[in-house]
Amino acid sequence: MDEQPRVSRILPLAFPRGGDKLCELCQERAHLQCDRCRLTFYCNAEHQQADWVGIHQRICQLLVPIRTPTAFSLQRDGQIEMQLKKAELIEICRSVARRKLSERKHQEAVPAAQFYLRCSIDVLGPSTVQLVPSHLLLAEANMGLGNLSLVAEILSQAEWLVLKSPGCGHAVRQQLHRSLGHLHTATGDLEAALLNFANDVYFASEEFGLESTVTSDGYFLMADVFAKQGKISITRSLYSTVAHIWHHHLSKLLKTHIESVQNPDVMFEPSYDQGRQAEVDEVLGTMLEFEQDDSRKDPAQVALVAHCLAMLWFLKGDNLKALGFGSVALQASQLIPNHDLTEAVQGLLQLVQSLQTEPHPGSGLSAQPSPEDVLHQDSPSFQP
To answer: Most CB within 10 Å of its CB: which of 149, 193, 204, 209?
Structure first.
């Protein structure tokens, strides 16, 4: 795809007929037209294909009433209906952009994120702090593509909106500082990154509490920066904080899940989607690898993180990986006399093993591998 569109030039959703036709993605003079809605234009086939895959296939026909105003749309009832259609567009674009980012499809996420910003500006106006989430989503998409100068421009606009809104909520400030922290980490300004991640933790704790998993994400990001600086003791301390927060959270989810199995009237709903699950898996996996690679292994920390991973994979329905990480946790906890996690880990392993089913004769399925096989495939066992 060609150079990414600049956020400083945002086309309105509706535009007068007979005006210059500009590319939906880059706002350069357009020569191609969508043959379905016939109201969207592109400078070349590459941008047309990128927009179609990114978002246009989802909103093509929704744009028709917005970009072809009628006498009714100018009346009060028509204006209300038009605002509802634009609100629908906003939610579709936000949802699509977020899903593509969770799948790490940053290139495809850009058109959806850009249209999310465009819709938001059209509905909310160009200078409201409510635009910050759409700026941050567009920044995240471009961060994944390495467009750091564009990310800096987008975040600068978001920061300006926050600075001129003294009553801005903690959650928005937390998200802004996290994005700024990611940018400074990518550019190598680690001190600025630490400052922003520290603000991330502060505002997250104010909004969600000190024991929130959102707050723990900020601790993890700070630990990652300290690790880059070679400050291992601080990294270890922050990782321990993150592990304890996640262990408490996952233990509560596991308890609720078991209650829902025992009592069908209890509804169990995981508190995060698949994208969030992948993030948590990566965070916990990074901490376990860090501990196992360190010459001063802490069996208590290994047991804690591995137990978290076992619970996470069990809740995701992957009993094989739950067995593997549970066995790592058990090996580590048994190195510490009367360790308080040993009983909990054994309970989880017994629960997982009770759910393992033998293959039906003639099904062609092999028997379940042993925990030792799982450990060899998915995770190194703990070595004292």
So the answer is: 204
